[in-house]
Amino acid sequence: MTNSIRHSAKLSPSSSNFTPRTLLKFHHSPLLNPSTNHKLGFKFLCSCESSKNSNSSSNRDSALLSILLAIPDWADEIKERGMKQKRSLYGNESWVQHRSSLRHLRHFLTSLNSRVILSLVPPVIAFTSVAVIVSSYNTAVSMHWLPDFFPILKASTLPYQLTAPALALLLVFRTEASYSRFEEGKHAWTKIIAGTDDFARQVIANVQSPNDTILKSAILQYIMAFPVALKCHIIYDSDIAQDLKNILEVDDLAVVLSSKHRPRCIIEFISQSLQLLDIEAAKRHTLESKLGCFHEGIGVCEQLMGIPIPLSYTRLTSRFLVLWHFTLPIILWEDCHWIVVPATFISAASLFCIEEVGVLIEEPFPMLALDELCHRARIKIEETLRNEKLIQARVSANRKSHRGKNHSPNGWPTCLEDRQPG
Q1: Which parts of the chain register pLDDT below 50?
Q2: How far is CA 256 from its chain centroid?
Q3: What span, in angstroms and rounded, lies between the C-alpha atoms of 162 and 259?
Q4: CA neighbours within 13 Å on the CB side: how many for 416?
Q5: Which of 28, 168, 182, 329 would give a disulfide with 131, using CB separation of 3.0 to 4.6 Å?
Q6: Which helix (H) or strand (E) holds 19?
Q7: Closest CA to 345 of 130, 133, 152, 172
Q8: CA 261, chain centre distance (Å)
Q9: 406: nearest Cα among 417, 419, 393
């Protein structure tokens, strides 16, 4: 305490020890030097500004990345939404419109509504942008806006002339392989629907005992439910509870929903119900043999869903297309100059569209009108069941009306044989 007071007394202006040299030392003390404080503050501000700049640059990069990813996400959303749309079977009016002479104009005017075309927006924009960049660079070099050591990006068209047939064959074979899968899926569902109708007809014709009326109705419900369950099994994000609630009983539907493999669960319902029918063994064996069509349909559908076209073939086609269009502006620059931009746009839109169609029909079932096929199969079975009694009554009446008539050995009524010609 005494030392501090004594030290302050030495620095006091009223003190005898206070001199101008002391004042100079006071002003140049390192602790109170304003230049040092200014440097420290400047360093602090610079560090704050650099951190702010780094944060702003990272935010800018993330915003740019999100914008670039927004376009593919938007295109994929449109594509998946189109995959979930319900297809309809063609009728007479649809075929008339399909072969109309105005179909080309109609298809062109509705191009922006096509999910195939909209899904091509990301690759077409990317390769057209590459063409613009290459054209701008070559123009800047030719106008001497850049140093002379920058070369013009151009190359011979001979490599493209040699590889163009290979690319064409790749696209043709890829699309043909996808279409063969589409045909196989369509054929499988044709057999499933035909087998459903035939199975229901056999049950209606062979099960006539009054004691089996309830069981017969239940079997027909299971038969109508099988195509719906198989459709929901192979179509992504299907609502099987909503589709089956008007076909199956509540308790049966709960058992089906709790099963891991819903179509096979319905087949088991049918098989167990057939064992309880009061019919001959031969008829039961005939009805059980109809289940083979259902098992075959499950196998074909699961095979098409689980085994795509060899991935190496798909990847090769995609890589070939990407490399082709990345280098296309360089190849065409010497002959086309700025026309390479629309040329690249047209080439990318055309070739990627063919490849996109092949990818879409590779999974055939979203392309088929499965909802309407299942609905029509159900309508046919219900109509057959409603007309069963009426048709039986008419057949019995016709049999009774012809029972009293005499027939000749050849099967014709005698009244027709007795008629004289002329």
Answers
A1: 1-50, 416-417, 420-422
A2: 27
A3: 56
A4: 9
A5: 329
A6: none
A7: 130
A8: 23
A9: 417
